Amino acid sequence: MRTPTRFAVALALTGALVTACSGAATPTPAPSPSPAASIAASPEASPSPAAASPSPAPSPSPNACAPANLATLAAGKLTIGTDNPAYPPYFQPPATGNASKPWQLGDPTNGQGFEAAFAYALAGQLGFTKDQVTWTVVPFSNSYAPGKKPFDFYLAQVSYTPERATAVDMSDGYYFVAQSVVALTGNPLAKVTTISGLKSFKFGAQVGTTAYDTIKNIIQPTTSISVYNDNDAAVKALQAKQIDGLVVDLPTAFYVTAAQIVDAKGNPLATIVGQFPVQAGPDAEHFSLVLAKGSPLTSCVNQAIGALKSDGSLDQITKTWLSDKANAPVFQP
Q1: Which residue, of 2, 49, 133, 149, is most buried by count of CB atoms within 10 Å of its CB?
Q2: Predicted structure pTM score
Q3: What gap in Å lies between CA 25 and CA 27, rounded to an integer?
């Protein structure tokens, strides 16, 4: 606030004396403006910064699941791992000729088959085009072993288990599955209808699978369990009558009986004996994608799976590739 100068004070006193000497009535002096008013009226007074300009709006949070923000193994690429051979109906062979190298049986790169179609739909939901997707071979049991991963995510009918989830991230379920028993049509096992009736037979399964767990924990056979590195070896053991029954998930059982164990004319030589009851609720067996432990992609993958469920895409893929794979009697206790 400014203060009056000595000149101004002297001038005011002189004016008062002149008025008194002239005999004129003394006017009521005007009230002095308040300091605040003086500041407001002063041309040199400046408004506060807050009054001069509004606060800028907060910047929107970046989309962590946008393709440019995803921390994939290779920038701008999505690397998907799966087992080899790649079995139908999860991965379909080409319409003509053999699968492209290094793939055997099914070819993940053609997008045909339940898991191939799902993988490309998921990639699209994450913002990747088909030509931005690469596939890599990883043995099934290596996918959920501890350590660094050569893939962004992996799928090969990997069922969620708490034990696996201690070493890797496992996504929300994308398929709820029943385990089943396959036997040669001439084997007495083919006529069994109860779980208790299975115990005296010899069974085999791929190592590290929930099929093996089903034999061990549900069937509880009286003979030792045969374990194989992959389903192809297990199927050959069944054909060679080294085991009575093969335990696999139901869609795989359909493929084994419809395409793998057939005569020269394509007639089936094996049958699906039955399927085990599917457990209801959140603990029901389901396939999950495998990601490295603590992967920054896990939440985005789960978000994408949720979107495919919500818009009906996953249901349509399931109906297209697996709808005719579920016909098998359910074992009674």
Answers
A1: 149
A2: 0.74
A3: 6
Q: Is 210 found in the same domain as 137?
A: no
Number of domains in the chain: 2
- Side chain identity at 321, as an amino acid letter? W
The CATH number linked to 89 is 3.40.190.10
- Residue 73 sits in which domain range? 67-176+286-322
Q: Phi and psi (nearest 5°) for 134? A: -125, 150
Q: How many CB atoms lie within 10 A of CB 295?
A: 18
Given a cut of 50, the residues of the chain with pLDDT beneath it are 1-52
Task: Give me Rg for the CA atoms of the chain.
Answer: 38
Concatenated DSSP letters for 237-258? HHHTTSSSEEEEEHHHHHHIII
35-85 pLDDT per residue, tens? 444 434 444 444 444 444 555 555 555 788 998 899 999 999 999 999 999
Asked if 200 and 240 sit in the same domain, the reply is yes
Tell me if 333 is assigned to some domain: no
* 162 within domain boundaries: yes
* C-alpha pair distances (Å), 28 with each of 16, 32, 154: 12, 12, 94
Dump pLDDT digits (tens) for 188-202. 999 999 999 999 999
At 194, is the secondary structure helix, strand, or coil?
Answer: strand
Numbers of helices and strands, H then E, in the chain? 11, 12
